[in-house]
Amino acid sequence: MIEIERLTKRYGATTAVDRLSFTVRPGAVTGFLGPNGAGKSTTLRMILGLDSPTAGRATVDGVPFAGRPRGLRHVGALLDAGDVHGGRSARAHLAALARSNRIPLGRVDEVLAEVGLGKAAGRRIGGYSLGMKQRLGIAGALLGDPPVLLFDEPLNGLDPEGVLWVRGLFRRLADEGRTVFVSSHMMAEMEHTADRLVVIGRGRLIADESLAEFSARNAETSVAVRTPELAALAGVLRGEGAEVDVTDEQFGIVTGLPADRIGELALRHGLVLHELATRTSSLEAAFMSLTADSVEYLAGDAR
Fold first, then answer.
1. Higher pLDDT pick, 301 / 83
2. What pTM does this model have?
3. Is domain 220-280 annotated with CATH 3.40.50?
4. Which N-terminal residues, if any, form the signal peptide (predicted)?
5. 12, 37, 102, 269: which has the highest count of C-beta atoms within 10 A?
6. Per-residue model confidence as pLDDT tens digits over 216-258
């Protein structure tokens, strides 16, 4: 379990993480979401003891991670897949980690095979693609068979097969009762990966809930209608408190009333319907709307 209590990190006048509190529990994949610059990577670094908080605390199973000897047996992490010695082979890189954490060397080939790098184990990492480096980083996180795992943007550079493999891996790790914490700025991917979401913006907590709760609270529902009598139907629906966005003479988008109620009203007033379809906005759109005020760098900003 990871517990964050009023965690704060300031760099001079800039507050990167602002009194952040949440808990990441075992047995689930928890997505850690926010726009670029929201404070996700800084939070992960404080969990791992790589940065010291200005205030507050971060613990893993009740203990600050920095105080744990042989850390890879307790927490596995992938923060930056490119932060490796390019002149070493994958096997040599993992063997060094294994020795420093007193992990049996036999574990090295096990995890290399698990991530699909068994045949490339003797190659220099400098010749690896980004996707291969991501797989190597995941192998390093798995090396100590830890109960807690953290991943920062683990899908970067992976091909579609690799993405499917990572999703399955995270699900298996969670089903084994491990704590799995995955940072990303892409809601579309977390929609297929996470059970719970922690969303932050400008270092502050925005949401901490299950994926289903996030969807129910933030996704917007509308109803598409097509009818040769759209003007008359729009008048009826507006009289019931709905909003109707007329896009052409026969087609409109209705918000504020469910499809079954719209159908009942059309029947009551003798209006013909050619189409009546409920539409739900994507979670990506809901996420973008929720974090719109927390985006640090907007495309098209004046320079």
1. 83
2. 0.81
3. no
4. none
5. 37
6. 777 778 999 999 999 999 999 999 999 999 999 999 999 999 9
